[in-house]
């Protein structure tokens, strides 16, 4: 069992995509009516890395980007957020970067994602073997990384090397059906990853998928503690979250906010949950910090640009001393 207390002693390695997000501007504009867009760093893994650096942690990304202007945009954005990119390589040929066209509105929010010939899926075992895992204190990945080979095989190889180096493995289920060839492939890959990881975070739908039936999701989350996981967070949207640990379980509520859009909450939660643990917080406090960050991000435009700093998170918590349960 990896030692979670080492989190933050060294940078945290995040595996997975960096992309470009294009937001219809001004906020509330439907995509089909938009005549202008603003660009920002996107991709779930890059967003998590941005959340970590905004929260005062060092983070680096392991992925591939396209050998074109969009890929170079992503590299420049990683630099702007202070995210290490020594292990970000380019994929040539027809590989293209992930691109999302997104709205900033709460009701019927559209997010159109382009993943054809995705560059990040071209990450190889050789890319992983170039990583010096001794430089890092943990490895974080999302389920999207596992959706296709060679990325899937490379990621599992990274898990093996990270475990050999004694690093905690942190997994955000992040199930997106459109990325997968079949639900059966996804189920098999997620079960394998969940059996290896120390911290597993997902929502009720994702755990339901992992279990094979929606109504069995909560029990599936609970059972992962018995198979090696140290912390499992079962998120339930406006109903808050249930967190399972070896010492027991606890439920937490949400922080009320004037939401502008639904996107970015999961990445904000995970990044700030990890950052809080890295600062020595107890698990329950870390969950609350993640929940507060999620509430802040859905009330702001964008995902990576919306991630709070430590000072902003502290100010929010000072004004919202306790979450609510619905």
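Q: What amino acid sequence fits the structure above?
A:
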């Amino acid at each position: 069992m990896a030692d979670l207390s080492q989190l933050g002693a060294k940078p945290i390695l995040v595996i997975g995509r960096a992309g470009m997000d294009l937001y219809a501007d001004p906020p509330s504009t439907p995509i089909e009516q938009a005549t202008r867009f603003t660009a920002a760093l996107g991709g779930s893994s890059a967003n998590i890395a941005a959340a970590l650096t905004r929260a005062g942690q060092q983070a680096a990304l392991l992925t591939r980007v396209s050998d074109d202007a969009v890929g170079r945009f992503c590299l420049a954005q990683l630099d702007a957020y202070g995210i290490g990119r020594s292990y970000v390589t380019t994929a040539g040929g027809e590989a293209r970067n992930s691109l999302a066209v997104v709205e900033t509105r709460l009701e019927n929010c559209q997010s159109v994602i382009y993943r054809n010939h995705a560059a990040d899926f071209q990450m190889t075992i050789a890319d992983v073997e170039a990583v010096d895992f001794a430089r890092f204190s943990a490895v974080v990945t999302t389920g999207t990384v596992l959706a296709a080979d060679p990325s899937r095989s490379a990621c599992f190889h990274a898990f093996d090397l990270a475990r050999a180096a004694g690093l905690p493995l942190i997994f955000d289920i992040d199930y997106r059906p459109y990325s997968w060839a079949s639900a059966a492939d996804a189920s098999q890959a997620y079960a394998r990853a969940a059996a290896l990881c120390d911290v597993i975070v997902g929502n009720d739908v994702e755990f339901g998928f992992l279990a094979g039936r929606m109504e069995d999701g909560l029990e599936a989350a609970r059972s992962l503690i018995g198979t090696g996981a140290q912390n499992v967070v079962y998120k339930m949207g406006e109903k808050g979250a249930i967190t399972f640990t070896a010492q027991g379980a606890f439920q937490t509520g949400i922080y009320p906010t004037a939401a502008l859009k639904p996107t970015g909450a999961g990445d904000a939660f995970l990044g700030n949950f990890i950052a809080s643990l890295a600062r020595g917080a107890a698990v329950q406090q870390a969950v609350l910090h993640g929940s507060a960050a999620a509430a802040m991000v859905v009330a702001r435009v964008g995902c990576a640009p919306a991630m709070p700093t430590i000072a902003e998170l502290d100010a929010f918590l000072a004004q919202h001393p306790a979450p609510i349960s619905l």
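Q: And what stands out in the fold?
A: The chain has ten helices and 13 strands.
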